[in-house]
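Retro notes - structure team

What went well: the batch runner handled both jobs without manual restarts.
What didn't: labels got mixed up in the shared folder, which is why I'm recording both outputs here explicitly, each with its sequence directly above its tokens.

Job 1
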Amino acid sequence: MATTAQPSDSLARRHWEWQYLELMRRIWTDGDERRDRTGVGTRSVFGAQLRFDLADGAMPLLSTKRVYWKTASREMLWFLTGSTNIRPLVLQNVKIWNEWPHARYVRETGDAIALDDFVARIAGDEAFASQWGDLGPVYGKQWVDWPTYEAAGDGLFRRGPGINQVAQVVDSLQRNPGSRRHIIEGWNVAELDTMALPPCHKTYQFHVAGNRLNGLMYQRSCDVALGLPFNLWGAALLTRMLAQQTGYEPGELVWMGGDVHLYLNHGELVEAQLSREPSGQARLNILRQPDTIFDYRIEDFEIVDYEPQGALSAPVAV
């Protein structure tokens, strides 16, 4: 089994990324090997935590492999629109959600179209995308339009106005900073079966301490090699945007995982990454303050001092 490279000096020893590498090593060497939904198999531990200080623009962007932060940012901005269709992502060359609607299309139609050809049809045919590009009421739908129902008479109910949890959190951070209810929840039990994938990063909570905004994200299921680098970035970016919108300084990001795992077919990536040492510290500049948290654009974000080591890839388990 691989062992994590050891920090060469006291400065390296304090680098936040050693937490990530140690978690990866622990899963790969000591995790429980188990069957999973995808059929690929995982090594898994239950219950993990990482902490990261967002002060001075610092961001949890891995240096031991290249993380495509613009892709992760575009996904977060897409969540905030409430969209559940992959077409806006496809048109930005964001590929991370393509496999799920493609698998559904092949399963339901029997047409064994190649993934690239399916994605090209999503991009070029709006009607096709409307029918086959939707993921069900995932993430953003729950975040900004959580469904409500109201009595319509005769024991029937009709759809009521949706709840914008993100807007509510912005308001509560400004009006009642000491509240323990600054929460964005994605786990809508009534709609899980209609989602392409139930939310993995399911719960976000925010906490004001002095003039700093802390963020916590709980992830019920975490692919540490491919998913977690994106999830850390997304949670940190959301915390940074909320801090700017509500007038606080960025505080600490706390990540908590439930079933935290590595897929058995990710061995080459794991071995390669565990042989590397973290270095440097990427920082995020937000170049303007939009009117609302829903008005950020990818051009508003600038990363400086990011010098990652080479990209590492592995197959996505669907």
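Job 2
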Amino acid sequence: MSVFIVDSNFFIQAHRVSYPLDVAYSFWNKVKQLADSGFIMSIDKVKDEIFDNHDLLSEWCEANLPDDFFHDTASSIESYRLVTSWVVSRSTHYLPNAINEFLSAEEADAFIVAYALDDPSNNIIVTQEVSEPFRRNKVKIPDACDALGVRYVNMMDMFRLLSETF
């Protein structure tokens, strides 16, 4: 069974743009249902990014997501080394600030790719980021995934793959 690993922007863009918590109850009920059933999960670094804001979204996550929803990335250190090696090998393409930001311990991007890389045949990243292979000032999750053989989809494609509606 594939597991969908959701990026921070899955929650943040939904909350701030497309599916506000005070309007789109069916969306958030579906997210809770998928989390409770184990179809979606995330990582500790995403939790840090969400909970750093201390807003309605972090309150919703605290109240509605299972205790084991955010997985520890400490076990993904070998995969993280592969992600690091890949991005450093691209230092003639990416600007130093882009590499530093991607690899920052405060950012979830490299860690979510590494976590998915632990089991690439079953893990699928869900991100709203779009591939920009020629961009030099930002490393995008889809570009790292393409280089490292990790599958990714956007939010709506995830719902389609799960045959879910809301």
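One thing worth noting from job 2: Residues 3-161 form a domain with the Rossmann fold fold (CATH 3.40.50.1010).
We'll revisit the folder naming next retro.
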